[in-house]
UniProtKB/TrEMBL annotation:
GO molecular function: ubiquitin-protein transferase activity; zinc ion binding
Organism the protein comes from: Triparma strigata
InterPro entries: Ankyrin_rpt (IPR002110), Ankyrin_rpt-contain_sf (IPR036770), MDM2_MDM4_MUL1 (IPR051652), Znf_RING (IPR001841), Znf_RING/FYVE/PHD (IPR013083)
Alphabetically ordered keywords of this record: Metal-binding, Zinc, Zinc-finger
Identification of the protein by name: RING-type domain-containing protein
GO biological process: protein ubiquitination
SUPFAM superfamilies for this protein: Ankyrin repeat, RING/U-box
RING-type domain sequence ranges: 471-506
Record-linked PROSITE patterns: ZF_RING_2
Highest taxon listed in the record's lineage: Eukaryota
Length: 517
């Protein structure tokens, strides 16, 4: 091609998904981000699995690449974060926007295996059919049809891989169960999938049961079929992967107050956390549950809950759980539990000692719980559990020494250093501040004493200097006469004329020399 031809003019390529999501909130809207992400080329072979473990042979009713190979989970995470960051007014404004195919953000989430957290977040903004939650035509978002006449439930029934997402859509708009688009009802669309989905039979059964309840005007039965299993029921089934997935969804969804699920108890008074501890659930699940607690108060509330036998989380962990890291985290987060007794009067240490000694880390657990139970304060407990920064520990020891010797200057210095790295949240820092205030008058008095001593020292130095230049006889006039032969310069001329011997050495005066001439 000839140089300088019009076709050689550089045309910047369209933005990639990563470039789009890196802009501020004034950049592309949610729908634009969904379209950018859906234009990714497939990364798996047809009939196989992509690199994220999703099947690539799921048919896309709208054409284009296969459903599960277009969106990657991390793309949905980014879109969900952007959705959460938007203000409510702008978020609702973007929900009802559709592209040329009539696809909304919700439709993209249903077609391309979006997370349930995003679906629930969208529907939480459209909880009612009030005008402010509808589009210009007065339609609820679940009533909006695509260009082919499909409702969101049709799309979900035909393409969605997550049974819980379909339950959420049915629960919010069950009328769509009997709606027929160009390809049939949601049940017809699910049946047309055949064996393309591993859980297709479950989805068909759900749709049929929900439609029967809707036609029989049985709202209770409908809600029962559409109920998403909460964390407690999943832990009772020992379905640990589903438990982890449920908690992760909640971490990304501000529309759910997940603390209600975390604090829920069964007939034995056991929380999901207690079940995970008792039945050796994965440490990742326990860490996620504690991370989901909205504040330190909620975390302590969870760790302080007792079952019907008076056991707290630390009691159960000391008796049953084999992960020393988790036990340390319980102790650090709620050290009071070390002294709490169950209904039969046993502490966590008693339970640790009383369990099977064949546990791989039995001796280590007993040693840890024993040392922490005997610790003199909460700081020592955290130090034993390795939860104290070594630098902080060194500075705290210095502060402890300063408090012991009641040195106000060193206390102030240590507090300043501690607050710089830990914001002064250690109880000792508060005690040191109180002590420093009490020692403040003593510190001022000592400072005044030092000032007086320094002035006295200066005055004495000045007096010594003056004494070294005044006549030793009259103590008034300046020394200016040298007595010979001893060469002492100790007298003024007037006094020297009256002397016959040196006032210092008593030597005989042979002559006198006036230094001032």
């Amino acid at each position: 091609m000839a140089t300088g031809a019009p076709s050689d003019v550089f045309v910047p390529p369209p933005p990639t998904f990563q470039q789009a999501v890196s802009t501020d909130l004034g950049g592309p809207e949610l729908l634009d981000l969904c379209k950018l992400a859906s234009e990714r080329p497939p990364i798996g072979d047809v009939g196989g699995f992509d690199r994220d473990g999703f099947p690539t042979d799921v048919h896309n009713p709208l054409g284009g690449p296969t459903v599960s190979s277009t969106f990657l989970p991390r793309s949905w995470d980014i879109i969900l974060q952007r959705a959460r960051a938007l203000e409510d007014r702008r978020f609702r404004g973007e929900l009802f926007k559709a592209d040329e195919d009539g696809m909304t953000v919700l439709n993209f989430a249903l077609c391309w295996n979006g997370p349930i957290a995003l679906v629930e977040l969208i529907l939480s903004k459209c909880r009612t059919k009030a005008p402010k939650h509808t589009n210009e035509a007065g339609e609820h978002i679940l009533q909006m049809r695509s260009a082919a006449g499909w409702l969101p439930l049709h799309l979900a029934a035909a393409t969605c891989l997550d049974l819980n997402v379909i339950k959420v859509v049915i629960r919010h708009y069950p009328e769509a169960l009997r709606d027929s688009c160009t390809a049939g009802t949601p049940i017809d669309l699910a049946k047309s999938m055949g064996t393309d989905r591993s859980n297709n039979a479950e989805i068909i059964e759900l749709l049929e049961n929900c439609r029967a309840c809707f036609e029989n005007q049985d709202p209770v039965g409908l809600l029962q079929h559409c109920a998403i299993e909460d964390l407690l029921s999943l832990t009772k089934k020992f379905d640990w992967p589903a438990c982890i997935k449920r908690v992760r969804w909640s971490l990304m969804n501000p529309a759910i107050r997940f603390m209600d699920e975390i604090l829920k108890t069964d007939a034995s008074g056991w929380t999901p956390l207690a079940h995970a501890i008792k039945w050796q659930g994965p440490s990742d699940l326990i860490t996620l549950i504690l991370h989901k607690c909205e504040s330190d108060i909620d975390k302590k509330r969870l760790l302080s809950m007792k079952d019907n036998m008076g056991h707290q989380a630390l009691h159960l962990a000391a008796a049953h759980y084999d992960d020393i890291v988790i036990i340390r985290s319980f102790i650090v987060d709620y050290p009071i539990a070390l002294q709490v007794t169950s209904d039969d009067g046993r502490t966590p240490l008693d339970l640790a000692k009383g369990t099977n000694s064949q546990r791989a880390i039995h001796a280590e657990i007993v040693s840890l719980v024993d040392c922490c139970t005997s610790a003199k304060d909460e700081y020592e407990v955290k130090k034993l559990c390795g939860a104290i920064d070594p630098t902080y520990a060194h500075l705290r020891d210095s502060l402890q020494a300063a408090v012991t010797c009641r040195d106000c200057d060193k206390i102030d210095e240590s507090i300043a250093l501690l607050e710089a790295i830990r914001l002064g949240d250690d109880p000792l820092v508060g005690e040191a501040k109180v002590l420093a205030e009490e020692l403040r008058p003593q510190q001022a008095f000592k400072k005044l004493q030092r000032q007086v001593s320094e002035k006295n020292r200066a005055l004495n130095d000045l007096t010594d200097k003056l004494d070294a230049t005044v006549c030793v006889v009259c103590m008034v006039n300046q020394r200016s006469t040298v007595i010979m032969e001893c060469a002492h310069l100790v007298c003024c001329p007037t006094c020297a004329n009256k002397l016959t011997s040196c006032p210092i050495c008593r030597g005989k005066i042979s002559r006198k020399i006036n230094t001032k001439g």
